[in-house]
Structure formats: C-alpha cells, structure tokens
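3-phosphoshikimate 1-carboxyvinyltransferase, pasting as requested.
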Amino acid sequence: MNVTLGPSKLGGTATAPPSKSYTHRAILASGYADSATVRDALWSADTRATARAVELFGGSVTRSDDGTLSVEGFDGTPEVPADVIDCDNSGTTMRLVTAAAALADGTSVLTGDESLRSRPQGPLLEALSDLGADAASTRANGQAPLVVTGPLSGDRVSIPGDVSSQYITALLMAGAVTADGLEIDLETELKSAPYVDVTIELLADFGVDAEATEDGFAVPGGQSYAPEGGEYAVPGDFSSISYPLAAGAIASEDGVRIEGAHPSAQGDTAIVDIVDRMGADVEWNRDDGTIDVSKAPLEGIDVSVEDTPDLLPTIATLGAVADGDTRITNAEHVRFKETDRVSAMAEELEKMGVETTETRDSLTVHGDESTIRGATVDGRADHRIVMSLALAGLAADGETTIQGGEHVDVSFPGFFGMLSSLGATVETAD
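Structure tokens follow.
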C-alpha cells in the first residue's frame, strides 16, 4: 500500500496505542500461567504471532469484541508444537518463544519472514545449548529457521548483553518455571536495558520474582505465573507515542494532546525529554496520563539511543526540521532491527533533501543544510521507518509518497487514521 501525505497543520487529541513490548510479554506470561485475562492489549501483526505460539504450546488465546484477551495457558509446561512456529516479522516473538520452546520435552521449529530470518539469534541459541537444550540454526549462521529440543537442565549461563536485551527477557521468563531457576551473567554491557526493566516489572505483576544482580540477572525457579485477580492491563506505548508527539512538535501551532501516556518502566519515555530539549512546547501530566505538545523552533541536540533504539527514526525526522545538527549516537544495535534503521533513515531522508552523515554507530542529521521536499520513499517493510517518514511528509514542500504503508500494522494499526483525525492530508492506494 502506498500512502501519500501533504504538508499539514495538526491539532486535536490522539490516544496512545497499547504497548507492543508489554503486550508480547503479557501474552506469553499468560501462556506460562494456568489462565489469565489481558486487557488493553495491542492486537497487531507482531502480537498475533506471539498468541499463535502460545496456542501451539497447548494454550488458547481468545479476543473479545472490546479487545480483551482471554488466555488459557500451558501452566509452565509447553507442549511440543504440532506445527512450525511462524513468528512472521516479530523478533520479540522469536526470541521469547525460542526460550519457551527449550522447556518442551521434544523438538520445536521456528521461522519467520525474510527480514526475521536475517536477524541474529546466535547468542540465545548458544545460551540454551549451555543450559542443556539442543538449539541450532538450520543454516548454521545463527539465524532462523531454528530447531530447539528441550528440556533445559542448567541453572547458570553467560551471554553478551550488547546484541539484544530480548535474550535476557526470554531467559528470565523461561527460567522462572524451571526447577532450579536461572542466573544470567552478562559478558558485555547491556544495551536497551530499560526493556529488561519492563520484563521485571511485568513479571512482578504476574507474581514472579526476578532481579538484577552484580553480574547480570537472576530468577528463582519453581515459580507460578498468576496476575493479581487473574487480570493484567497493558499500559500505553511510548515508542508509538513518539509519533504523535513528534507530529505535534513539527506541525501543530494549536497543539496536540496525547492521552494514555502514563509513566512506566519503558525507556522510550525519554522521547518527552528529547522533544522538550529540542525546543518544542511540551507538558506531561503524569497523573492524568496526558501530554500536550505544540510547534516551536527546534534545535539539534546530541542523543544517545543505547537504551532507546526504537526512537532513532523519530529523532532523525525531528533533526531534519531542526536548526543545526542532531547527532544520534550509540546506535550500532539499531542496525539489527526489521531493517538497518540507521542506513534506512539516512538514505530515505536524503531522497527528501535532508543531509546526513552516517558512521557505524551514529547518524548525524544536518538540519541547517536541509530543505525537506516531497518525494517517493521506501518504508523498507519496517513500521518505524514508515511512520517516521510520514512525519517528515508533514513538513515537506510538496507531496510525499511512502511505499509499504501497510507495515504500520506491526505496532500501530491506526497510525494513518490518527494522523488524519489530527488534520493531516492522507491518501492511500493499493
């Protein structure tokens, strides 16, 4: 689907979609449980992949008309799947489910689309093998398809922390239901650390203890997943909030209000401070969960995305409309997402007249040297690239057409409808 946007003036109220990160974890945690209800869940292409995996492990996931998920779990003991687990485009699904598969007393096969089959899984496979499972890549390259034969038998493992924090999340969630629990030693500094904080917060809500240690993380064994009252409510998603927030900073003189922005462990809450530092008018009422933002002259800043990799595309677009340079650092791990997001944003923004400088672990956007103009750009089959380029289209001179607009379904199915409701000129074509 191609989506065309014109320069727009925005105003009104947007509601934050539920968090994709929390929804993934909540669906799988409910699978580890006997049963649970997940309210306010994000139902997207990625989270549906996690739900399918729970069902292949012997559980069931039923969605009601109001979006509530009723999950019958496999109670800590996943069955051997009767079919291949297709994780589609969801890296979170593959990593979290790979560790769950290692608990089954038999063999599971996991695969995904072309993009997912290019993403690194090697460190997790090695960790599971060290814990007594047989975990391998069919192509012997550390990438899917994966074949995992359980069950796990070890209680301590070491793993690098600078490739993906999702490895740690996967091991913590699985380790809680093993007999002896699991101690995880980090071989390198942990990147995207707030995502592990999200995991520990959610585990606590499901009655599971896990903690940071001097060398990494630990989770006692023999635990049961059981949220208080049998229910869990998913908070709003600050990765997704970054888009209406940036849209307001770029294109709303009258202001945009964002609802559902309640504080949580999400590292991407940093976007509020980033937009404020760049000069937009921002006010976050944490008690009410509302953010008000309006347009003001933006200035380039230096931002590390070591712990907030999903924000890089949004920040790059903000830098394109700011004065001076916006330098995004500690970004090497952002290259291993649905696409290489560092190069993707550099190359696609350059089609729109934006000057950038790219290194292995940084992206600098030269706002002073840029004049944003409409162009046809490639969303790279990546939801965050699509949405960030749409933001650039709001401020471009002329129309911007984004190829692959349907990929917003991964995390923000109502994204273009939200922009339209705020006053953006949006046209879609198959």
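Note for the archive: The CA atoms of residues 90 and 172 lie 19 Å apart.
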